[in-house]
Amino acid sequence: MSSVPASAFLALALILFCIGLYGALTKRNTVIVLISIELMLNAVNINLVTFSKYGMAPSITGQIFALFAISVAAAEAAVGLAVLISLYRARKTVNIDEMDTLKN
Amino acid sequence: MTFSGEFLAFMGIALVAIIGGVLLLNLTKVVHMVVSLIFTFVAIAGLYVLLSAEFVAAVQILIYSGAITIIMLFGIMLTKHNDEHEPKTGKWRKILVFLGVLGFAAAVYLGIYNFNIEQVPTTLHENNTMQIGKALYSKYIIPFELTSVLLLVALVGSIILAKNEKKEADDQ
């Protein structure tokens, strides 16, 4: 039995998610946008692990789902960074508001 | 809510995590932002230990504080930027995004405020890694194998995307 209520973990995950969302929507550097997305994924993982311990039927499934989410997030970071580098080769910029080729 | 050792540990970890996140938003140099986020990742690993998920905590430190942070630092250094993160984003846009995120936070907080879920004693902390291994290789064997395919595809795809030197040499 834990003395920390589940809502405390959920509230912390919510705060981290909001920080990641704000960073992803306002930062200009694409690397920072990518890493903000990683922060949002981490907040979701906290929720998964929290519900694997709390509730009527706690089981290991939540932790395993968190592991799958971590591996998918790692693959996403690698591919995102590769796209970023090839985009940098083509456009010579990493600022997200200068990548507006579709606008014209 | 008593002030037990577990609660104090949770408060300290939550403080470190939130400070790391706020520093990410407020620092000016890009490298400093990434390094401040390491604090958040390590704090989240501590949170997993509190939630009796020791294996996930170890994976979190290995993958996030180790691999992803280093790969992001490589990305910053390979794309030579002017290092300073000049705030050219419009002020109105920032305010609007802040209000939107605040509204989202309030809406979700209404849902989890006083969220009283029942708690039953668990055995998750006993032989945590063995339990994960047993479940992973029996019940979740097909998603596990599919993950290996996904990682292979990501590896090959990112190498093909990032290497493109022959074309560049042709252009010059």
Number of helices of chain B: 7
**Overall 3D shape of chain A:** elongated
Q: How many H/I helical runs of chain A?
A: 3
Written as H for each helix and E for each strand, in order along the chain, the element string of chain A is HHH
Q: Could you describe the 3D structure shown?
A:
The complex is a heterodimer of chains A (104) and B (172). With 104 residues, chain A is mainly alpha-helical. Chain A has three helices and no strands. Chain A has helices at residues 6-26, 30-53, 61-91. In chain A, helix 1 (6-26) runs antiparallel to helix 2 (30-53) and helix 2 (30-53) packs antiparallel against helix 3 (61-91). The longest helix of chain A has 31 residues, at 61-91. Chain B is mostly helical and 172 residues long. Chain B is globular and about 55 Å long. Chain B contains seven helices and no strands. Chain B has helices at 5-26, 30-50, 54-78, 91-112, 128-138, 141-162, 165-171. The longest helix of chain B is centred in the middle third of the chain and has 25 residues, at 54-78. Helix content of chain B is 76%, strand content 0%. Chains A and B meet through helix 1, helix 2 and helix 3 of A and helix 1, helix 2, helix 3, helix 4 and helix 5 of B.
